[in-house]
Amino acid sequence: GNSVTQMEGPVTLSEEAFLTINCTYTATGYPSLFWYVQYPGEGLQLLLKATKADDKGSNKGFEATYRKETTSFHLEKGSVQVSDSAVYFCALDRGSTLGRLYFGRGTQLTVWP
Amino acid sequence: DAGVTQSPTHLIKTRGQQVTLRCSPKSGHDTVSWYQQALGQGPQFIFQYYEEEERQRGNFPDRFSGHQFPNYSSELNVNALLLGDSALYLCASSLMTTGRREKLFFGSGTQLSVL
Fold it and tell me: Which of residues 12-41 of A touch B (CB under 8 A)?
């Protein structure tokens, strides 16, 4: 089947610390991989994506590399800010028809000044 | 340009009742997908509507049904509500273009509480 496993949260960091949120997946075919972010009281926003192996998605200082050999798509940021506090979701799209995403459980990130 | 709008934002119902949630897609989008997000969980796909027909369905019972109107807006209906239906219901819209992927845009959701 298709599934996404994220590291357990919550994650608490000081401002300017390095962030890693682990994500591994199981999928049939050749999925696209995504990271979404959810701020309090808001819907999900696409943070970054990668559509094939070895692609690196990046946005707002966040990066993730599609690793087919380890079936992983870990999210990283070199220096987090208080404004990065949110819930982060890893997701995959099987690649058949856009619209059906399989999400992980989410990781709550809190950044302290 | 309005994004995806959902109504109402919050709703309280009792067990056994029926509920209707509404979604207006982002301007120019023609496909609507619905997700259920239980507390502390990731969103789970319910179904997707395109050209006024249900195109894909996740693992949800028939109590969950939907509709898409000619203006591309959509409704999610849940009958015989259970306590376990309490969740944030998210609507996402996209443009179905052959051979080309368009990213999903999510609304802020409707928080449904079943007492």
Answer: 32, 36, 41
DSSP chain A: --EEEE--S-EEEETT--EEE-EEEE-SS--EEEEEEE-TTS-EEEEEEE-STT-EEEETTEEEE-BTTTTB--EEESS--GGG-EEEEEEEE-SSSTT-EEE---EEEEEE-
Task: Look at B55 and A44 and tell me if their CB atoms are within 8 Å.
Answer: no
Phi and psi torsions of A4, nearest 5°: -130, 135
Q: Which amino acid is residue B61, in one-letter code?
A: P
**CB contacts, 8 Å: A98 with chain B:** 31, 94, 96, 101-102, 104
How much is the pLDDT for B96?
Answer: 77
Tell me the per-residue pLDDT of A53-71, one tens digit each, with 9 for 90 and over.
999 999 999 999 999 999 9
* Nearest one of A32, A13, A18 to A76, comparing CA atoms: A18
Find the chain B residues whose C-beta atoms sit closer than 8 A to any C-beta of A.
4, 31, 33, 35, 40-45, 48, 55-56, 58, 90, 92, 94, 96, 101-104, 106-109
